[in-house]
Amino acid sequence: MIPGRNFPPRRQNRRENVNESIRAREVRAVFPDGTAEVMPTAAALRKAQELGLDLVVVSPTAVPPVAKAIDYGHYQYELKKKQHEAKKKQHVVQVKELKFRPNTDDHDYDFKKNHAIRFLQEGNRVKAVVQFRGREIAHTDIGKRLLTRFAEDLSTYGNVEGTPRLEGRNAHILISPSKAVVKAAETKLEDAAKAAEAKRDLPV
User: Fold this and answer.
1) What digits encode the pLDDT tens for the residues 95-115?
2) Residue 189 lies inside a defined structural domain of this protein
3) pTM, full prediction
4) Closest Cα partner for 27 from 52, 49, 55?
């Protein structure tokens, strides 16, 4: 007996929601003049072609599916452009770690505090860690006071997630940017994206 062959799955037609590939028997057809009508797909397609346009399903889960008479090439271009813009505006939140010692001097403290402010203004989270070495572990209260002071100094820019925690020979806290700071960071990203777009559209 000849064993059956395993064929690879058929690739879906990427344009199954365009023109003749639309499988729904009827659609809610929307035309450039703003009219919308539930009609057989064949009739909607015929009307779109008379206008020199494509019939494109834009809401396949609706009952019946919503299809627009549009230029499919232009539709794809605008869709990709929107996806590209959304991706540019997306900000990946990172956790920035700053390390201290129980005897950190004021100059080093202020230096790292300013770094933390910048990280929070960029929309990132900050993890402040106090490292204890040798006999310093007997004075964890000093480290916790330093972390509490650090959190209070950053209260304008972020919110502390919990209280200082001791894990092994390290004490740490996690600070997230406040809503106002996050909004400012998002606005800054949007402004930068708009500036880049405007610069790209300038004539050479």
Assistant:
1) 999 999 999 999 999 999 999
2) no
3) 0.50
4) 55
